[in-house]
Amino acid sequence: MKILFFVTEDWYFCSHRLPLAQKLVEDGHEVVLLSNIGKCREIIEKEKIRAINFGSSRGSLNPFLALYVVIRLLKIYLREKPDIIHQVSIKPVLLGSVAAIFIRKAKMINAITGLGWLYTSKSKKALVLGFFVRKVLRFVLNKGNTIVQNKDDFKWLTDIGVNGRAISLIRGSGVDIQQFYPVEKNPEKKKIRILLVARMLWDKGVEEFVNAAEKLSTKFENTEFVLVGDPDPSNKASIPESTLDNWSKSNVVQWLGRRNDIDKLLSESDIACLPSYREGLPKSLLEASAAGLPIVTTDVPGCREVVSDGENGFLVPVRDSELLANALEKLIIDRKIRISMGKRSRELAVTHFSAEKIIAETISLYEKELNK
Residue 130 pLDDT > 60, yes or no? Predict the structure, then answer.
């Protein structure tokens, strides 16, 4: 079996799809990655994955450029002759699916990892673009099988006219429960660390986190609020680096930027937080759950798949820093709740979100499609 992944950025592939690709190679399959290949080339090729550089702008809305991208994709798909074309996130799904329509033998798998700016923005541009995106998705997604990560996205697709039999619910990319595991916290520890791991985007709720931190850090001197992740200039919701620097200089939060030791940071933290406006299924919360942390997040698609309110954390309304602060305070003042909720987080991660389980479900979908 030959599987071709089309993912916009190589770092995203390494972060979210590399374990799947490793398992496929291990099982004797050929894996090709079509992506904007940059710093991760060595990591990818070390795993015997052939990388094809395909530079394209995630932020561009130019229809002529989109047509050019479709033509380039079609040529590559015809040349590579894959058995499975696995396209990840909205733009690769839209453009790749149009190209893949002309590839009769290949089976098309589309992964909707979240609806992002198109869903969270109320701007006129987003509303108009969203109208056309829905029309195209309804057409192309009925041609293959679409993976969604949460029940809300499943419903959204069926509501726009995608056949439910062409949709598979597979919860995220999975988490390595051996790499991310609970570490017992020293009860004499002086600081309670609240950690937010995400790209630094407005719609990740970063500003609400900072506002909550401002309120709580004056009330509880034994707290520290930490942001981990880089801005994403290609995304319309990216937070300027100057704003992040100013927040960090104010001593209300620490901004650490991009880190490759998330497992270590989680082991040193007490509470995970992600006040996002909408998600597919956030990897950062899966890792926090596997690490046995209580979680405070928003009651929105994706996030509520990971947290059961009052069980392994708290769900709060979106864009509400006041209620976010109140939920965090409950965990700050009560170590016993932090411990009990953290244990439940670990149980949920092992049962529902292990990488082994998610990879097996994905490969099973490949085989099912090939046997049709």
Answer: yes
Query: Cα(36)–Cα(51) distance, rounded to whole angstroms?
Result: 9
- pLDDT of 146 reads 95
Q: Which two tokens stand for residue 225?
A: 């609020």
- Cα separation, 293 vs 295, whole angstroms: 6
Contacts of 128 (CB under 8 A, 6+ apart): none
What is the strand order of the sheet 145-148 is part of? 50-53, 30-36, 2-9, 84-88, 107-112, 145-148, 167-169
Task: Give 358-364's long-range contacts (Cβ < 8 A, gap of 24+).
Answer: 358/20, 358/170, 358/171, 358/172, 358/173, 358/174, 359/19, 359/20, 359/23, 359/174, 361/170, 362/20, 362/147, 362/170, 363/20, 363/23, 363/24, 363/27
Report the C-alpha gap between 55 and 110 in whole angstroms.
20
Domains of the chain plus CATH, in order, are 2-174+354-370 (3.40.50.2000), 192-352 (3.40.50.2000)
Phi-psi sector, 56: left (phi>0), alpha (psi -120 to 50), beta? beta
* pLDDT, tens digit, 9 for 90 and up, residues 154-179: 999 999 999 999 999 999 999 999 99
Distance from C-alpha of 184 to C-alpha of 14, rounded to nearest angstrom: 29
